[in-house]
Amino acid sequence: MSIATLILGQSGTGKSTSLRNLNPDDVLLIQVVKKPLPFRSAGWKYLSKDGGSIYVSDNPEVIIKRMQQTTRPIIVIDDYQYVMANEYMRRSQETGFAKFTEIGRKTWDVFTAATQLADNKRVYILSHTEENDAGKTKIKTIGKMLDEKITLEGMVTICLQTAIINEQHVFMTKNNGHNTVKSPIGLFDHEHVENDLNAVDKAICEYYGLTTESNQTEA
């Protein structure tokens, strides 16, 4: 059973930047939207026969296949909300609710697959947030199926949210009653930690006793 973690936050609050200290040889970064990384990233290359760490796709079936095939211990899906949004826009002229059901089902498939990989795998799903009718900050979705029938945050054990406090970018680790943040007892000592995904990954590995070995010859 793999460990899937949600990293939520508005654009520009440090989600992608949190990758900066990860070793790209240990990571499969699936970019839903192809764009430059927001830090010096000479070691991060697009996958080819010569190696690389970055793959671009907004297709849920392809994302699942890549997650299942990779030998890397760390998988990051960046800008996940565009998996849903891009499909919605491609089908925006369709009438009826079938497209919302299909979008919801495919997202459920991705989240389910993220929790069913090998035991040493860690999957980080980065996505934007929105505020619901009750004023709670949650993962941004399309349609009501994922909100009313499936709570995506409920499919993972760890859900962190970005914040900027005193001009410092941090991850929130504790629920404040107005968000969906959560983490296991004792995983983090503080309510806020630096937005460093490498440090978060090390904490998770230590907490759950996971090995961090990888095969770095993937293409």
Entry summary:
The chain is α/β, with parallel strands linked by helices. Helix content is 24%, strand content 21%. It is globular.
Task: Characterize the structure shown.
It is a single chain. This protein has 219 residues and is of the alpha/beta class. It has one domain (3-208): P-loop containing nucleotide triphosphate hydrolases (Rossmann fold, 3-Layer(aba) Sandwich), CATH 3.40.50. 24% of the residues lie in helices and 21% in strands. The strands form 2 sheets. It has an 8-stranded mixed beta sheet, with helices on one face. A hairpin with a 5-residue loop joins β6 (129-131) and β7 (137-139). α2 packs antiparallel against α3 (98-114). It is globular, with a radius of gyration of 17 Å. It starts with a strand and ends in an 11-residue tail after the last helix. The model has no long low-confidence stretch (mean pLDDT 92).
